[in-house]
């Protein structure tokens, strides 16, 4: 090896060491949205240790009424939350709140709020540019989009779509119930899981206006009474996974990026064969490495783990693991893919699990924090 090549090799080694050091030193905040019951006052913030998965409480980030689901803007300057319950005394609509983020302390400063245009908003997301917020109204059975100003404040709705119809479960599907809304893997379409209609609705998205128009085909149908709740696209964008609340299944769809169309490939159960109690599912998240998929069972109180076939996109059961609490609602995988944090809504705790990178299996780390009625966890890299 010549002297020049040796120097080049040494420089590469030093560069990789520097990049690894910077990655290891990245600090994170973890925000938790809650229901404001049993003493909870709103959104809480924690300092997250990516080396151990530990959470250090930093206190109440902002008071807010039932901020169950939260989303952080792509520029990391703003946080948005749905507010389930009455908005300004009106029972037919909830609210959406905007906050600015102090990257040093994690504290949130209230900016403004707007009516969500439907009762009980339960999920929200932002487009890639952070210019529009998308909201799903559960009891209202509708979806809406809201423009975001340069100052992070929310404007009036640029789109409002009222769903119509019902499903065979007369108690839970008496009307449409929009439960999840976010973008397709390529960002060209918006997907919406409607529990009441047994459909994944697909909308074309105009990034300039923030408007939604029904796609052709306008939806993908699930089994009658399934009750689709949340959706998780595969990391390579070729597949979409849907966890259904009422019949306890996960449905695998192939995704046609040109047409925005979904084609059913497989349906698997979320529960062990020997479980016969009452259960509803909640969250579904794909691992950053694209190899594993996780879902939560409320009743069985477990996290179900699947391995993903890299070519077919189909799922194979790996294990069921106790959530170490009651009613695991949302859970989140940390940015490095090392730990999975579960928000147990009814037992008021968040439990940390280590993820085996080769098998996807979960092991409790022993790290656990108490917080009243936790629903949603979101990470933010600190500046």
Features:
1 helix, 4-stranded antiparallel β-sheet, 383 residues, 6% helix, mainly beta
Compressed to H and E, one letter per element, the order equals HEEEEEEEEEEEEEEEEEEEEEEEEEEEE
Strand arrangement across the biggest beta sheet = 3-2-1-28
Outline the low-pLDDT stretches: 8-24
Radius of gyration: 21 Å
Number of strands: 28
Share of residues in strands: over 45%
Q: Quick check: average pLDDT?
A: 94
Number of helices: 1
How would you characterize the largest beta sheet?
4 strands, antiparallel
Description of the molecule:
This protein is mostly beta strands and 383 residues long. Helix content is 6%, strand content 53%. The protein has a four-stranded antiparallel β-sheet, with no helix packed on it. A four-stranded antiparallel β-sheet has the order 4-5-6-7, with no helix packed on it.
Topology at a glance:
Blueprint: H1 3-25, E1 28-34, E2 42-49, E3 54-63, E4 70-72, E5 78-83, E6 95-101, E7 108-115, E8 121-126, E9 132-137, E10 142-148, E11 154-162, E12 178-183, E13 189-194, E14 199-206, E15 211-221, E16 228-233, E17 239-244, E18 249-256, E19 261-269, E20 280-286, E21 292-298, E22 302-308, E23 315-322, E24 328-333, E25 339-344, E26 349-355, E27 362-370, E28 374-381
Antiparallel strand pairs: 1-2, 1-28, 2-3, 4-5, 5-6, 6-7, 8-9, 9-10, 10-11, 12-13, 13-14, 14-15, 16-17, 17-18, 18-19, 20-21, 21-22, 22-23, 24-25, 25-26, 26-27
């Amino acid at each position: 090896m010549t002297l020049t090549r040796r120097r080049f090799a040494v420089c590469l080694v030093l560069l990789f060491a520097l990049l690894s050091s910077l990655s290891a030193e990245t600090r994170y905040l973890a925000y938790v949205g809650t229901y404001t019951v049993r003493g909870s006052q709103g959104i809480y913030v924690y300092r997250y240790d990516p080396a151990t998965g530990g959470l250090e409480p930093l206190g109440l980030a902002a008071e807010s009424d039932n901020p169950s689901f939260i989303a952080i803007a792509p520029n990391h300057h703003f946080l948005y939350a749905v507010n389930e319950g009455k908005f300004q005394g009106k029972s037919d609509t909830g609210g959406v709140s905007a906050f600015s983020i102090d990257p040093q302390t994690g504290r949130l400063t209230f900016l403004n709020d707007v009516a969500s245009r439907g009762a009980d908003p339960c999920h929200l997301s932002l487009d890639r540019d952070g210019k529009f917020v998308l909201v799903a109204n559960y009891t209202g059975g509708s979806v809406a989009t809201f423009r975001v100003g340069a100052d992070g404040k929310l404007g009036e709705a640029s789109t409002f779509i009222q769903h119509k119809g019902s499903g065979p479960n007369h108690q839970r599907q008496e009307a449409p119930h929009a439960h999840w809304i976010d973008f397709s893997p390529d960002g060209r379409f918006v997907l919406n899981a409607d529990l009441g209609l047994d459909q994944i609705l697909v909308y074309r998205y105009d990034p300039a206006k923030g408007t939604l128009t029904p796609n052709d085909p306008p939806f993908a149908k699930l089994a009658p009474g399934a009750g689709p709740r949340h959706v998780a696209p595969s990391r390579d964008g070729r597949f979409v996974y849907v966890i259904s609340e009422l019949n306890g299944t996960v449905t695998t769809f192939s995704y046609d990026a040109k047409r925005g169309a979904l084609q059913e490939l497989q349906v698997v159960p979320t529960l062990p064969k020997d479980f016969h109690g009452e259960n509803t599912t909640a969250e579904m998240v794909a691992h950053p490495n694209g190899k594993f998929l996780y879902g939560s069972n409320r009743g069985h109180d477990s996290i179900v783990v699947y391995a993903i076939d890299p070519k077919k996109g189909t799922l194979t059961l790996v294990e069921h693991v106790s959530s170490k609490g009651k009613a695991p609602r949302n859970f989140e995988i940390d940015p490095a893919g090392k730990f999975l944090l579960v928000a147990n809504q009814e037992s008021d705790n968040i439990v940390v699990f280590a993820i085996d990178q080769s098998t996807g299996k979960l092991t409790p780390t022993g790290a656990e924090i108490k917080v009243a009625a936790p629903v949603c966890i979101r990470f933010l890299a600190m500046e």
